[in-house]
Design a protein that fits this description.
mainly beta
Length: about 180
């Protein structure tokens, strides 16, 4: 009989969550646009976006997602170009998880269409050892303050926390005293 040790990788269950973010529950809280000056329509922008989930919020690790914050920088010429940003995802109990993402955008009508890919870098509380990937497809018009899209999150919470908690509860074997066997 072949026996394999239970490793974190073998024991972790990958979870997938799909959810929309609507324009009515998304707002640009801050934007600062700077014209580059080399060609018309070329600018860099620092931005902060807040997405809220008042109805049917996505569930992560048994907890509802309350808010998603995106803070980053874009480099666009006529709404086409690249962006990078940090994501902070706030759950109903105050726990958070974090991500770093990059986006490629192209002009679409008055706004843009963007595809993003991000890496989950960890979190707090139950999500301290969370790892995974975030994919989004978005349409936006930053000048009009519109941003909406679809998100897919693939993640594992990590067993380091679970194993640490289990060790705290497990009884310890008696220890031998000097001179005892």
């Amino acid at each position: 009989m072949l026996s394999l040790p239970a490793t974190d990788t073998l024991a972790q269950d990958t979870q997938r969550v799909f959810f929309p973010s609507s324009a009515e529950n998304t707002k640009y809280t801050q934007q600062h646009l700077i014209e580059v000056g080399d060609v018309g329509g070329h600018h860099v922008r620092v931005f902060e976006i807040l997405r809220m989930f008042p109805k049917d919020p996505p569930i992560f690790g048994g907890l509802a997602l309350k808010e998603e914050w995106s803070r980053g920088v874009s480099d666009y010429t006529d709404n086409s170009g690249a962006a990078s940003f940090y994501g902070v995802y706030v759950l109903e109990n105050g726990d958070k998880f974090f991500a770093y993402s990059t986006a490629v955008s192209r002009k679409a009508g008055a706004g843009l269409s963007a595809v993003t890919v991000g890496r989950i870098t960890g979190g707090t509380g139950k999500f301290a050892n969370m790892r995974g990937t975030i994919y989004t497809v978005r349409t936006a018009d930053p000048a009009a303050g519109i941003n909406e899209g679809q998100t897919e999150v693939e993640y594992v919470l990590g067993l380091e926390t679970d194993a640490r908690d289990a060790r705290k509860e497990a009884p310890r074997p008696p220890t031998a005293r000097p001179g005892q066997r």
